[in-house]
Design brief:
Blueprint lengths: L4 E6 L13 H20 L3 E6 L2 H13 L9 H27 L5 E3 L3 E4 L11 E7 L1 H11 L2 E4 L5 E5 L4 E4 L2 H9 L3 E3 L6 E5 L5 E3 L6 H12 L3 E5 L6 E2 L7 E2 L2 E3 H9 L9 H12 L5 E4 L4 H5 L5 E4 L1
Parallel strand pairs: 1-2, 1-12, 2-9, 3-9, 4-10, 12-16, 15-17
Antiparallel strand pairs: 4-8, 5-7, 6-7, 10-11, 13-14, 16-17
Helix pairs in contact: 1-3, 2-3, 6-8, 7-8
Length: 314
């Protein structure tokens, strides 16, 4: 495979291998395993941008703030995303540096704190539905609703959770910086957690907002803006499947854009799981993208040659 520009999106949950082992050291080890595979892609001569998720990590920040609420201020959600961009970016940066040294690859890595513009009139702001953070008692939920203006909902008898808007990404503020870093040969880590959500005022200034952006949709926007040759989403399963979890479950090796859109319409993919990943790749392909791949971290390299994962072609 000739040298390509590849955008790789990795899930926040892929940085946590075991929910019972979530220390910083355990998260670094998971990051190292993912970086080990992506480093091989860089060694092959490809230019790479990595976008990571941050769902569990934002949850930890919010939980710490909850325990400290009597002595410390609440943490705005845009600041939570910024915090995770720095912390997870550092873990990945250190992991890549160490893997490159082991592989004899002369590359450096840069983590870029990244803002993504959203539309203040996005429908999700009128109907927040994205659950974040841990479960709460009704008492705590109503406290936060009153004191902090949170939107809260009871979740299927399991407790209460905060729900926030999840607006669609519209513009990447630091796009030009990402392009410049790539032109210098850097491996770039950007748009962590889907990017820090901001709205643009009439005078061109930015304000952070209480929202989260889907990491896969933000990665798709980045792949389109960069005119990437390949958009790869790394997740918990090697291949996309139809009839997931059923006796007639079928793994998909290679499908067309039309196939992907038909399967979405037929309801094969769950919202909050595979649906957004397929949607992100279809948007990339519809805008001139060349190839989308969905696979798990250990099959990233093999998927480039069509030997693993699910390939989606225009």
């Amino acid at each position: 495979m000739s040298s390509k520009l590849i955008v790789i999106a990795i899930g926040g949950n892929s940085l946590i291998e075991d929910k019972n082992h979530v220390t910083v050291a355990a998260q670094y080890e998971a990051a190292r395993k993912t970086a080990h595979e992506i480093a091989k892609v860089v060694k092959m001569g490809h230019r790479v941008v990595v976008v990571h998720g941050n769902g569990p990590q934002v949850g930890y920040i919010l939980l710490r703030a909850e325990y400290a609420r009597k002595i410390l201020h609440a943490v705005p959600l845009d600041s939570c995303v910024a915090d995770t961009q720095g912390a997870i970016g550092y873990q990945l940066q250190r992991a890549f540096d160490n893997e490159f040294m082991a592989l004899g690859v002369d590359k450096s890595v840069v983590t870029l704190v990244s803002q993504v513009v959203v539309d203040p009139n996005d429908p999700s702001f009128c109907d927040p539905s994205k659950p974040i953070g841990s479960f709460m008692s009704e008492e705590d939920a109503l406290y936060h609703k009153k004191e902090n203006g949170w939107n809260v909902r009871e979740d299927a008898g399991r407790g209460w959770r905060r729900v926030v808007p999840s607006p669609r990404p519209k513009e990447i503020v630091e796009l030009e910086s990402i392009e410049k870093l790539l032109s210098l040969g850097e491996v770039v880590i950007a748009l962590g957690g889907g990017g820090i959500p901001v709205v643009k005022r009439a005078d061109g200034s930015y304000d952070g907002v209480e929202a989260v952006i889907d990491k896969d949709l933000a990665s798709s926007l980045l792949a389109r803006k960069l005119k990437a040759d390949l958009f790869l989403i790394s997740t918990a399963v090697e291949k996309v499947c139809l009839n997931w979890g059923k006796s007639d479950m079928k793994a998909l090796d290679s499908i067309s854009l039309d196939d992907a859109k038909r399967y979405m319409a037929e309801g094969h993919f769950a919202k909050g799981s595979m649906l957004e990943k397929i949607e992100a790749i279809t948007e990339y392909l519809e805008d001139g993208g060349k190839l989308g791949i969905i696979t798990d971290p250990e099959h990233i390299v093999a998927s480039l040659d069509g030997k693993a994962g699910t390939s989606i072609h225009p």
